[in-house]
Amino acid sequence: MTERELSASDKAIRQRITELSVHIPCGGLRGPQPTWRWQSCRCEDNPQKWEGYDVSRAKDLCIICFRDTAGGPSKWAWLACEHCRQVNTAIEQRSGEQPFSLGRHSLMSGIGLRGEVPAEVLDQQIAKLVAFARGDGRLRTWRDSEYRSLAAAFDPLGDIPLPVWQQQWVPGPDASWDAFARLLGFSLPLEVDAGGDREVGGSQ
What was the pLDDT predicted at 118? Predict the structure, then answer.
């Protein structure tokens, strides 16, 4: 996209925003990027497209805690931050079931079709792949409530620099455990071993 193709509104946005920021109305990150020059959010008239990349975004807010960042321009990017992925893995190790598929590609969560398997196993694989493609309704509902709750601290029409957002909503292991606890509905400490971050205790 060239500057001539930018609408007046998009030009004004690029002049006004000087660092990667949370666009409060949609929750997307937009602003200048060192490598790709500009990262758009979906609210712009003509969102910037990066040729040669799967996704035209260098990072986004984590889909679990909405405090740290995740994502990237590749189809192999993680959509949750490192801390939330660690919690997701810890719960899986304890319960035997992965709470959420946090990768952009299904194979990142072990979801795919494998040959030379019984028909019933293949049916299970297909069902998991279809469910992944549809998206997790729990995460959509969670975003509607959790992001809006955090965003309420700021101007509802504003663009908040990412460091300011993270100063208000500090990322880290505690924030990730708290998010999972409220999302899945358990009390902390949970009966999982998270590398020493949490002790064994009761759950509900």
Answer: 78
How remote is the C-alpha of 23 from its chain's centroid? Answer: 15
Our CA angle for 198, 61, 141, nearest 5°, is: 80
Domain count of the chain? 2
Task: Provide the pLDDT confidence category of residue 17 given band limits of 50, 70 and 90.
Answer: very high
Query: Does 130 lie in the same domain as 59?
Result: no
Report DSSP state, residue 3: G
Do 158 and 58 belong together in one domain? yes
Q: Is the pLDDT of residue 96 over 90?
A: no
Do residues 88 and 52 share a domain? yes
Bridge pairing between strands 159-161 and 21-23: antiparallel
Which residues, other chains included, contact 73 with Cβ-Cβ below 8 Å and sequence gap of 6+?
Answer: 36, 50, 53, 54, 55, 56, 57, 58
CA distance 89 to 182: 17
Kindly state whether residue 16 falls inside one of the protein's structural domains: yes
Helix (H, G, I), strand (E, B) or coil at 149: helix
Q: Whole-model pTM?
A: 0.81
- The residue assigned the tokens 């469910």 is 131
> Does residue 143 contact residue 63 with C-beta atoms inside 8 Å?
yes
Indicate if 114 and 67 belong to the same structural domain: no
The H-or-E segment that residue 38 falls in is: strand 37-39
